[in-house]
Design a protein that fits this description.
Blueprint: E1 4-13, E2 16-26, E3 31-35, H1 42-50, E4 57-62, E5 65-66, H2 72-81, E6 82-85, H3 97-108, H4 113-126, H5 142-154, E7 160-164, H6 172-186, E8 191-195, H7 199-205, E9 208-213, E10 216-221, H8 223-228, H9 233-242
Parallel strand pairs: 3-8, 3-9, 6-7, 7-8
Antiparallel strand pairs: 1-2, 1-4, 4-5, 9-10
This protein binds adenosine-5'-diphosphate and magnesium ion (MG).
Residues 42-43 line the site of magnesium ion.
């Protein structure tokens, strides 16, 4: 049984169709990378999964139950299971690193502060920031801030984490420390959706690579299949340009 089943999903901005017939099945622990030209619908797919844009047609089945994106309670539950990190990390500037990670679990969820703090410290250790827990965001590098954003997303204990170009805004020398963090998460069994232009990284960590173009899934396969032996001309063209 797949953890997440995306079935014939359609989405549009106003009346402009953006996703067409997107079907994708994800197992627990899968590292799914979405690749494809700019404007192909990768971010939109992640937004629909999070309920930030309502699907027009199709279904998302999470842990065996159909997600009702029109239901507030269902959305709240969904966002406990699925978290997203964007290119722009948007940390709270007036809060320390530790406070940034603790704020939603304590203030929104009402979880006990002691346990949240314990978990937050462990998460910050996982992303290599134990020594900066009392720093403010503007005292950190971009790479460190992005790692705080990842820890903050993990603080709600999601089972699926969506990472939308999280290294795209970083200076080159900071990309690797964030990729290292993602590599480590990948080895720990959480399901990841990765949108990234770091193709050698995508090739190394992914269990599935999904090539999208014009709002459709053109081809899905292992990194070897998609990069080395693409079956569709469109994939072949894309891959030949990026490798
Ligand atoms: P990708 O992440 O693959 O670059 P997007 O999902 O951002 O692609 O965009 C897919 C299409 O949807 C593009 O044609 C883009 O112009 C359009 N689009 C994205 N965001 C919006 C929006 N907020 N309003 C209208 N159109 C949008
Ligand atoms: Mg995008």
């Amino acid at each position: 049984m797949p953890q997440l089943d995306i079935i014939k999903l359609k989405a549009a901005y106003n009346d402009q169709p953006v996703l067409e017939n997107v079907t994708l099945s994800v197992e627990k622990g899968d590292i799914v990378s979405l690749i494809g030209p700019s404007g192909s619908g990768k971010s939109t797919l992640l937004r629909v999964l999070m309920g930030l844009l309502l699907p027009k047609e199709g279904q998302v089945v999470l842990e065996n139950s159909v997600v009702d994106y029109t239901n507030k309670n269902a959305l709240r539950q969904l966002r406990e299971s699925i978290a997203i990190v964007f290119q722009q990390y948007n940390l709270f500037q007036n809060m320390t690193v530790l406070e940034n990670v603790m704020i939603t679990p304590t203030k929104v969820k009402g979880w006990p502060k002691k346990q949240v703090e314990h978990d937050a410290r462990r998460l910050l250790e996982r992303v290599g920031l134990s020594h900066r827990i009392n720093a403010y965001p503007d005292q950190l590098s971009g790479g460190q801030q992005q790692r705080v954003a990842i820890a903050r997303a993990l603080a709600l204990k999601p089972t699926i984490l969506l990472l939308d170009e999280v290294t795209a805004a970083l200076d080159p020398e900071m990309v690797n420390e964030v990729l290292d963090t993602i590599r480590e998460l990948a080895s720990e069994g959480i399901t990841l959706f990765i949108v990234s232009h770091e193709m050698s990284f995508v090739r190394e960590v992914s269990s599935k690579v999904v090539f999208m173009a014009d709002g459709q899934v053109v081809e899905t396969g292992s990194p070897q299949q998609v990069f080395d032996a693409p079956t569709h001309e469109r994939t072949r063209q894309f891959v030949s340009k990026i490798l």
